[in-house]
Amino acid sequence: MTAAAPHAGPDLGKTPGPPAASPPPSSSGRRTLRRSLPRVLPLTPALALLLVFLAGPIAYCVLIAFTDLQLTGQAQESFVGVDNFRRAFRDDAFLNAVWLTLVFTVLSALVGQNTLGLALAALMQRASKPVRTLAGGVVVTAWVLPEVVAGFLLYAFFRREGTLNAVLEFLHLPSQNWLFTLPILAVSFANVWRGTAFSMLVYSAALNEIPKEITEAAEVDGASGWRRMWHVTLPMIRRSIGTTLMLNTLQTLSVFGLIWVMTRGGPGGKSQTLPLFMYEQAFHNSLIGYGTAVALLLLLVGSLFSLLYMRLLRTEV
Fold first, then answer.
1. Which residues make beta-bridge pairs with 67?
2. 79 in helix, strand or coil?
3. Per-residue pLDDT tens over the stretch 8-59
4. What single DSSP character describes residue 296?
5. For residues 220 and 241, what is the distance between their CA atoms, to the nearest angstrom?
6. Which of 89, 152, 178, 199 is least surrounded, with the fewest CB atoms within 10 Å of its CB?
């Protein structure tokens, strides 16, 4: 009878060999780099352009803001530290420009363009096609006009002998020189007239994405139009509202040509926002260092608004 084969099992007496050697870190890093190169190389021209035309000028402006550089009457600039920034916060004209910039931004961007754009988008949802085409064409035409042309049109509308006073006199209502008595309100209205189209287009696209079943269900449950807007529509387009507010705010903070054509910041600085104050200091008073410091402060204000809106946008609906 044949003997049974011994049971195959682990050789307990045999010393286990060393584990397989892993590739050196340098070799792994080189392989990762080779895999990443095909994805990084196409972006190189764009990164180079950003460094040359965006990061480079910003870095140069930061350097100038800490000097006393002037356009005329100066042989060589010198480093002055934060004196330009101290001077700004002690300058009543700068503080007035900051206040008017906030008023202009709140009235024309946060309230005017945002509210009017949403109202037009909601109304156009229920309007007939000819009405939508006509209204959309008029609003978008105001948006695509060059800023200088829009400024001249609104100047003709608000001036003493302009269209607005002619209409008021026809209605036997008191007229006034709007560009002298209420210049910041006049330029705010002008910016609303010109920029509402962007908000309207964004909100129109957002409203079209809301499922009709949801609004119909709310209507069947007896919710009025205002309740449907407040409890259904606005929560569902909240991210679009945040995006629109951010873009409108950043665009409004940098408005220059419209105000310059209508009032040039006057009278007496009553409509001089930060871009106009910066321009006056840098090119009229030849204080390039001081004007650049004001520009950096304006950039800081825009960055703070952007961070605030981006934080709000991260909140899920």
1. 79
2. strand
3. 444 444 555 555 555 555 566 566 767 777 777 777 888 888 888 888 888 8
4. H
5. 26
6. 89
d(C-alpha 114, C-alpha 136), whole Å: 16
Task: Take residue 243 and report the two structure tokens written for it.
Answer: 């995006």
User: Among 32-36, 104-108, 174-178, 204-208, which stretch is predicted with the lowest mean pLDDT?
Assistant: 32-36
- CB of 102 within 8 A of CB of 184? no
Task: Give the Cα separation of 151 and 129 in Å (integer).
Answer: 31
205: tokens are 């696209």
Rounded to whole angstroms, the Cα distance separating 8 from 198 reads: 79
DSSP at 226 = H
Distance CA 178, CA 182 (A): 5
| CB 312, CB 238: distance < 8 Å | no
- CA distances for 11 relative to 16, 17, 102, 202, angstroms: 9, 12, 82, 74
